[in-house]
Each structure stands twice: as structure tokens, then as C-alpha cells.
Amino acid sequence: MRRWVLTASVLMMLGSPSWAADAPKVVVKPVLTTATTASGQPIAVPANPQVIVSTYEIPAGASLPFHKHPFPRYAYVMAGDLSVMNRDTNETYRYKTGDFIVEVLDQWHMGRNEGKTPVKLLVIDQVEPGKPNVVAAPQ
Q: Does 12 score more than 60 pLDDT?
């Protein structure tokens, strides 16, 4: 009987916490909803992917060489402005702080920081386990 009374008391306290009314509310703001890459390709995730998360810092004036990705790659721009030139489609994409990038698949592209401050990216890859997600363009 004592155990039941104790359990009921705890449940009553948890059921109506007085602090819940004063707690700050969680705010969720969608950043991007898409099923395609920057160039309009459907996103094809490998079965049972390995997820790799990295940060990149690209100094002002620096460029990433032409490369492509065989698997999905996503990037969140934490700081700066990034230009990405797609050699296969002859398009240039411009991204700024707060943008989310769904990178192109199997298309040659390069990134460049044309600003005066570093570009900082949070990069997420979904790859077949043990496989790289960057293929460098032949020289």
C-alpha cells in the first residue's frame, strides 16, 4: 500500500508541474525542405549509409578544386558567403550564412570564398560504409 501511495504521489507531481507554465518555449524554424540537389537531381541515399560529419573553414579568397560527390553531401553555412560553380551545368550557386546546401551528385563543381571573412561549413555525408565522398578532378 505504501508503494502505491508513493507512486501515485510522484505521478501527480509529474502530471502537473508548476514550472511548465514558466518554461521557455522551444522554437523550431524550418531551414529547407527538398527532395533534390542544387541542380535538381533526386537525392539517392545509399542503403544503410555511414554518416560522416565534418567542419570546413575556407579562408577569404581560397577555393576548393573541382571535384564531385558519388553520394549525398549536405552543408550548413555557419558563417560567410560561398560561391559554387557547377562545370557540368554552367550554373553558379551563391550561399550565405544560414543557408543549407544539398550538393550536386556526380557533377564537377568547385567552391570559392569571394568574401573578406572565412566561410565556415558543417558538412554531412551519407556514404556507403568505408567509401570516400570526394572525387578530385583529373589534372
A: no
